[in-house]
Design goal:
The protein has helices at residues 2-15, 22-33, 38-46, 51-87, 103-117, 131-134, 172-178, 219-234, 287-292, 309-317, 330-333, and strands at 121-122, 128-130, 154-155, 162-164, 183-192, 204-214, 240-247, 250-259, 276-285, 301-308. The protein is built from eleven helices and ten strands. The structure holds adenosine-5'-[phenylalaninyl-phosphate].
């Protein structure tokens, strides 16, 4: 009888792989575990054996029965889970996590869109530029004290002195040479500075250079462009203030402040209680730069500006620290 039990277990293990449906499983149950099944059949014989033999075979019978039940249970679970997923229309779908553009890229696209609407073309530069492009062409010769305004990351190079552009102004002369006035161009791009970081300063950030040259270009038009841009970008009219400043490549030069979007000029932590925030440098293009690009300075005037992209994104979304942009913190990135 022990051999019979062994062959039942063996058969159950073998047919296991052929069970593909709940109907197959029910047949399996009836055959092995049913009231008239193989195991019941043996049990009927065991109960009639003398006590000693009954005890011994009874234990072995229980072992085989448990093994067959285990097979049955496993098969049922597998088939029922499969059936559940297949037919339960209310079962929640698996969420596919989709990537999206970083908030800086989204914002640059938005900014480009606004400037395009007011007649600016888009040009792109390179992150590695020459010393001439970043400085000399902008009226900043070697040893000029203004070079200290931009802490520079130099690149070891054999011939020409190369560097990571410290500002998008590095492309002014190149673009002015390429296009004939009247022209209106923006140049968005990443810039690098070797400086300590804090909540409002990064070593790597984005600027948007603006250049306009024409017969009637003047500083009022520049202010008007800023007013239109900020109203579009922030969705409300904001006061724009030109504060006198100095850049070797513009004359006059200004620092552009806007009314603090967060406290509406009343004064808060972000604007350090001044009610205003610096967002750009700007001015009328210096005749040195226009001449360097071969433009007739008796006929044409121009204005230029360099907007700090992260600064205005921070204002729009109330972001307290510029370092969050490159922190790789998904909780931050997924918000936008
Ligand atoms: C310039 O880089 C000039 N090239 C701007 C300019 C262009 C002036 C054309 C005249 C004509 P400045 O270093 O101030 O200027 O930088 C311009 C803007 O970039 C600042 O107003 C600020 O918004 C942003 N910015 C400057 N340094 C940082 C920094 N470390 N981190 C983040 N944003 C910065």
């Amino acid at each position: 009888m022990k051999e019979e039990l062994d062959s039942i277990l063996k058969e159950a293990q073998e047919v296991k792989n052929n069970i593909k449906s709940l109907q197959d499983l029910e047949n399996f149950r009836i055959k092995f575990l049913g009231k008239k099944g193989l195991l019941k059949n043996i049990l009927d014989k065991i109960v009639n054996l003398p006590l000693e033999e009954r005890k011994e075979l009874g234990n072995y019978f229980n072992f085989v029965k448990e093994e067959v039940e285990k097979i049955y249970k496993e098969l049922r679970e597998k088939l029922e889970v499969g059936r559940f997923i297949k037919f339960d229309l209310h079962h929640p779908g698996r969420k596919i996590s989709k990537g999206h553009l970083h908030i800086i890229t989204q914002s640059i696209n938005k900014i480009i869109n606004i400037f395009s609407k007011i007649g600016f073309d888009v040009e792109l530069g390179r992150e590695i530029v020459t010393e001439y492009e970043n400085f000399d062409s902008l009226n900043i010769p070697p040893n000029h004290p203004a070079r200290d305004m931009w802490s520079t990351l130099w690149i070891k190079s054999q011939k020409e002195k190369l560097l990571l552009r410290t500002h998008t102004s590095a492309h002014q002369v190149e673009i002015l040479k390429k296009k004939n006035p009247p022209l209106k161009v923006i140049i968005p791009g990443k810039v690098y500075r070797h400086e300590a970081t804090d909540a409002r300063h990064e070593m790597q950030f984005h600027q948007l250079e603006g250049l306009a040259v024409g017969e009637g270009c003047n500083i009022q038009e520049l202010k008007g462009i800023f007013s239109i841009f900020f109203e579009e970008y922030f969705g409300k009219k904001l006061e724009v203030i030109f504060r006198s400043s100095y850049f070797p490549f513009t004359e006059p030069s200004v620092e552009v402040d806007i009314e603090c979007v967060l406290c509406k000029g009343r004064g808060c932590e972000v604007c350090k209680n001044s009610g205003y925030l610096e967002v750009a440098g700007a001015g009328m293009i210096h005749t040195f730069v226009l001449k360097e690009a071969g433009i007739d300075t008796n006929k044409y005037y121009g204005y230029a500006f360099g907007l700090g992209v992260e600064r205005i994104i921070m204002l729009k979304y109330n972001i307290p620290d510029i370092r969050l942009f490159h922190s790789s913190d998904l909780r931050f990135i997924k918000q936008f």
